[in-house]
Amino acid sequence: MGMQIKDISDKAFSAYGKVITGLDVTGILKEMEHTPLPDDVIYVPSVPELEALPEALVIQNNVYGELPIQIGYCNGHNTKLNAVEYHRNSEINIAVTDLVLIIGKQQDIGADYTYDTSLMEAFLVPAGTVIEVYGTTLHYAPCHVEDGGFRCVVVLPKGTNTDMEPLEIKNKEDALLFARNKWLIGHEEGGLPANAFIGLKGENLHVGNEQ
Fold it and tell me: What Pfam families does the annotation carry (predicted)?
């Protein structure tokens, strides 16, 4: 069996993020209807058609305090954790479909940058919901609820998750840097590129009944 899935109204979610209210994201949801929905997972950091919408300016000004942002998406079919990542800032997710997030706490990462997946929790994010995922929250690609897959809008500071310049390693955490503003810890079963830091210990968590 898969993980127990809690609702984002559960008090436990407050350690990882919060629901954002008062935003009209109708235009964003409509534009997302034109985005691909592959059998695996696709992530696109920045989509000009989404960023040109009036809602994008509201998110930039009101949610990010006028910090330059990018708006992209993560779509597809997925039931497994595979890896965790974190940023130096919050991430905004807009659930276009119902989806499940498997999340944990950066504070639980070990001194050697390994992390025990048994510490993670799963939460259902209903379609149309806007959430803030705190910068200290470990997360990765959402999991689908329906066989038709999932669509999720991803808002981050401009440049996040894009290619990095060569970096001189200064400390252990630098080994986790996988892209700009993206620190990643992978699972050995996650099918990640050879340069990914593999440090997830325990089960490659999944939702649903698939193993």
Answer: DUF4867 (PF16161)
